[in-house]
Amino acid sequence: MNLSMVTDLYELSMANGYQQTIPDEEGIFDIFYRRVPDNGSFVVTAGLAQAIDAVADFHFEKTDLAYLDSLHLFTEKFLLFLKDFHFSGEMTAVPEGTPIFPREPILTVRGPLIQVQLFETLLLSIINHESLIATKARRITYAAQGRPIMEFGARRAQGPMSATFGARAAIIGGCASTSNLLTAKLFDVPSAGTMAHSWIEAFPSELAAFEKWAELYPDNCALLVDTYDVINSGVPNAIKVFGDLVKQGHQPIGIRIDSGDIAHLAKIARQQLDAAGFEKAKITASNALDETTIQSLLLNEKAPIDNFGIGEKLITSASDPVLSGVYKLVAVVHDGHLVPKIKISDSREKVTLPGLKKVYRLYNKQTHEAFADVITLADEEISANSQISVRSADPLDTRQHSFLRDFDFKALQTTIFDQGKPVYTSPTVKEIQAACRSALKELPEESKRLSNPNKYPVYISEELAQLQDQLIGVD
Amino acid sequence: MNLSMVTDLYELSMANGYQQTIPDEEGIFDIFYRRVPDNGSFVVTAGLAQAIDAVADFHFEKTDLAYLDSLHLFTEKFLLFLKDFHFSGEMTAVPEGTPIFPREPILTVRGPLIQVQLFETLLLSIINHESLIATKARRITYAAQGRPIMEFGARRAQGPMSATFGARAAIIGGCASTSNLLTAKLFDVPSAGTMAHSWIEAFPSELAAFEKWAELYPDNCALLVDTYDVINSGVPNAIKVFGDLVKQGHQPIGIRIDSGDIAHLAKIARQQLDAAGFEKAKITASNALDETTIQSLLLNEKAPIDNFGIGEKLITSASDPVLSGVYKLVAVVHDGHLVPKIKISDSREKVTLPGLKKVYRLYNKQTHEAFADVITLADEEISANSQISVRSADPLDTRQHSFLRDFDFKALQTTIFDQGKPVYTSPTVKEIQAACRSALKELPEESKRLSNPNKYPVYISEELAQLQDQLIGVD
């Protein structure tokens, strides 16, 4: 399975065409998105490590070339170019785990058009997918208010690899652990799990099944209590087994409830456990939960749940399963001169931001809270002591001029490839998770709300705004 | 990337436990689902070929075993068992491309519990994913009423592998082609594609970009006409280029519209093309379409569209992105005796069908139309000359007894593994697509409707019904 072949046919048709018409032209492409899933205010980026691997390893094997040749669309010269493909350009990107707002470039690639055109499909499929799941995980962990979230959606993911990289993204977005062993192994993150109903059913009785489990895993004893009847059978049997465990000097972990009215069952189970002296035994809830149900369980119904196991609604971002990131040409380099490009559209909202750009996050000097982002042209310099003249980045806003002054700032982009060489070392997934948590802390609370979040201000510099106007033909 | 590690931790914890408690117990698991995505009446199954590979290749590598050992959960004996893992059991399944109804077993695995418990996560993630996308593709091709559908969602798929196997499933469900070169190469299916907006923008003018394309691909000339203005620029420029092509003896393919009001633009473009003598030039529409929009475009708005390119809404089944297939223990084999098992639930709907079973599709002898399915115990025989006593398979129905007689019938399951050996040769994807088309033709029209389809009758044999009642404790 050569990932480089996960490329739309037309990327190759275009590259083959560029080779015959404008072989020396360079292109600059931005990846960005316009709409945040679930009407949130930002996306948590993820997938950069896989994107780097995809570009560094981009190649075509003998059988790929034979297949492409069989299409009778490509010149021999082009197939030779594919055979010896190696990226010779530049890439910048925001680190994984960064909260990023609509229209801000997440990743920018510069290089010969004939090369960088080929990356579109693969880069988007990686970045769109992982950022989608990291964003959903952020929402779910936000709703859980610090309670640990176990990701266990592999069986309902869109295939095993989607499960694996989705679980990676879920950890970046804030999940505590995953049930997926491949993810846990590859990315050195905690694995977690208890037992399935089949364990209970494989034994003559629920009690016998629990007893065996306690014997096997005395220090990892979390029991699934809803196979037959949570209140009348599951919890009483768990309590018996926990009693024996304590006598043997072990601390039981707790119980998991996977069906029925979770809030109601958790409340009674809590009383039963407490009455038996197991105040420290945790209650884990699972059963098709997402951020909306979790918020309701905790805030409205005051369900005494300590941990959540989240499956299909996280691993597919079921309520909004697509992040519509795009890969748009923002400039060509013609005889050494950078010529900004724009995609005009009937819909003002879809008009792109031209040119090579940078994104800055601005912080209040006193509170250290982020209060706005500014997108500038790459050759503009900003400094903490001068003011910046800006307009709103959202073309649907009135776009009056404003001035920003007296701030601290941070450039969000980092260099990833330099002259075709990868120059960036990805942090570990645990480090990315921690960086994400810090970056989220810096954002205003009201931008993190799950429904109707306040719109965080994203500006473009006056210089960029004027370039855009000029290319659209606005006076 | 060892796919076998795409397994939930608890599967291994349970298997490790089985080895120490009931090592010789055999288990039988069914994969089935309860709810059809998008409120359809059936699912088109897909993914069996990948499921077979996953089981045949199930293994643990040195680094996997080292990782598992580091969890301090498993005995040395169990790790040795994993090291030498090979499946020794049986598998039956319905062939890919079969329309299948709720509660009918799609795939059944029988073997030592310690083995078959391990397949749950991986098999479900494969079968759930591909069946989901095949089902969505069936809906979309149904809406398109014979017009070819090109799958081109890779960039919005949930990762590159989801794109690749999703595109395979899309072809099974009826799509004509895919833009994904890996899918086209691996599964020998048609690849398709035109050009992106970046091609147009890379040239000084739209006309110049079109002219170059026509020169490069005179026999594959489909032009994207919405970069600047479909009616005033795109189509007129395409017509100029088509004129030149015809003079050179080539037949232009047509145009693609990817934004704006598709119905309105297609109508005017059609008039423009016809007036210029290009009645045979096709119009392809793309822009975030799904079965609902396609039906509206064709039936209500009478848009003159010849082909559709479908992206994110197909490759993620965006309107309903999860097929909730489950893997449930239906029997254990204890000292050589098959003991049927049932999962009881508070919700009557979730109670499983116990025992080893078969599914038959029954046909009207005159019309050859399928009129019902019957699920029986595996050792029951049915014949065309006797009658069958049945009840509804849906526990929410009144479940009165009925008798079925005078029918032709077909058993849907096939043997896939026999004593651990794969004995089934998967058809090609094109053959599966054709088989799916035939199987769909046999179903009643009213079960194929996109909204509020008629419920196709699925029965269980009286013997199976009585076994279920007995295990639930119903008199």
SSE blueprint and pairings:
The structure is a homodimer of 475-residue chains.
Chain A: H1 9-21, E1 26-32, E2 43-44, H2 48-56, H3 62-70, H4 76-83, E3 90-93, E4 99-100, E5 107-112, H5 113-116, H6 120-143, E6 149-151, H7 160-172, E7 177-178, H8 181-187, H9 197-201, H10 206-216, E8 222-224, H11 230-247, E9 254-257, H12 262-275, E10 282-285, H13 291-300, E11 307-310, H14 312-315, E12 326-334, E13 337-340, E14 357-364, E15 370-377, E16 388-392, E17 402-404, E18 407-411, E19 414-418, E20 421-422, H15 429-442, E21 458-461, H16 462-472
Parallel strand pairs in A: 6-7, 6-11, 8-9, 9-10, 10-11, 15-21
Antiparallel strand pairs in A: 1-5, 1-12, 2-4, 3-5, 3-19, 12-13, 14-15, 14-18, 16-17, 16-21, 19-20
Please explain how this structure is put together.
Chains A, B: One of its GO terms (biological process) is NAD+ biosynthetic process via the salvage pathway. Two copies of one chain form a homodimer. In chain A, 37% of the residues lie in helices and 20% in strands. Chain A starts with 8 loop residues before the first helix and ends with a helix. The radius of gyration of chain A is 26 Å and the shape is globular. Chain A has two domains: 3-133 and 321-472, nicotinate phosphoribosyltransferase; 146-315, Alpha-Beta Barrel (TIM Barrel). The first copy, chain A, has 475 residues and is of the alpha/beta class. Chains A and B meet through α1, α3, α6, α7 and α8 of A and α1, α3, α6, α7 and α8 of B.
